[in-house]
Amino acid sequence: MNVLVVKDYEAMSRKGADIISALLTLNGKAVLGLATGSTPVGMYKELVKRNKEGVISFKDVTTVNLDEYYPISPENNQSYRYFMNQNLFNDIDIDKTRTHVLNGLSSDPDKECKDYEDMIESLGGIDLQVLGIGRNGHIGFNEPGDFLYPMTHKTSLTESTIEANSRFFASIDDVPRYSLTMGIGTILNARKIIVLASGKDKKEAVKKMLSNTIDTKCPATLLSLHKDVTVIVTEDCI
Ligand code: F6R
Fold first, then answer.
1. Which strands make up the sheet holding 153-156, listed edge to edge?
2. Which burial class, exposed, middle or buried, applies to 151 when counting CB atoms under 10 A from its CB (0-12, 13-18, 19+)?
């Protein structure tokens, strides 16, 4: 893994935006895999700024998001669809019909996941996948466990993730207990991956991710199977 250590959150955000901007300059029709959470917010702000300045365009870009809570309505202000609209899609020149987020209201989640995989394949795969990392080493909603799922699937959230994400909800009881998420194989199929991490509370997870071992109890360690991963971490996180 290629590790870039940067000073702070702003530098991490700019570096992530630099990598995406470079890709869009070379390939205006790129397929971007995107993440939610607090980590990529600064990078999305930077991308919005560059788009407004005319430096990059999302006109022909397609996006696929990593995951979505289940069940949740796309209109719910805690849904990942809502998050993406608010933090990126509403403010850039993207065609919203080309932005894909798993449907948290699907009556047939297994079919929804299978269709999502097929859709990614029909797009020709993901050119660049953006990832954050959970304090417990999760990527997407692939939580630590005895085994991991390769493809997009419905899964339960762990207590640690429910607790970590409860900061966004009125109460911990409002956090959905399930999610739909790309699997580890879906992520590893992306041609390029960038992982963003900042802050002391991610230090342990980042250390394990970079330990050059594979452990399903830290899903991010599976990224070492990929040939083109760039980890952008702040100084206090490594
Ligand atoms: C988000 C996602 C999660 C987050 C992770 C870190 O789509 O899949 O894996 O990347 O939970 O979240 P933050 O950035 O809020 O610390």
1. 67-70, 178-181, 153-156
2. middle
161 pLDDT higher than 90: no
pLDDT digits (tens, 9 = 90+) for 11-28: 999 999 999 999 999 999
**Whether pTM exceeds 0.85:** yes
Q: How far is CA 23 from CA 17, 32, 87, 129, in A?
A: 10, 10, 20, 12
Pocket of ligand 1 (CB under 6 A): 35-39, 66-67, 132-134, 138-141
Q: Which of 13, 34, 36, 101 to mutate to test the pocket of ligand 1 (most atoms within 8 A of CB)?
A: 36
Q: Which atom of ligand 1 is nearest to the CA of 161?
A: 11
Closest C-alpha among 2, 7, 21, 27 to residue 194: 2
DSSP 8-state class, residue 177: S
CA-only gyration radius of the chain, Å? 16
At a CB cut-off of 8 Å and minimum separation 6, what does 2 contact? 229, 230, 231
Q: Whose CA is nearest to atom 5 of ligand 1?
A: 134
**Atom 8, ligand 1: which residue's CA is nearest?**
140
Ligand 1 closest atom vs CA 39: 14
Residues 132-145 have pLDDT tens digits of: 999 999 999 999 99
Q: Is 212 left (phi over 0), alpha (psi -120 to 50) or beta?
A: left
Mind listing the pLDDT tens digit for each residue in 69-109?
999 999 999 999 999 999 999 999 999 999 999 999 999 99
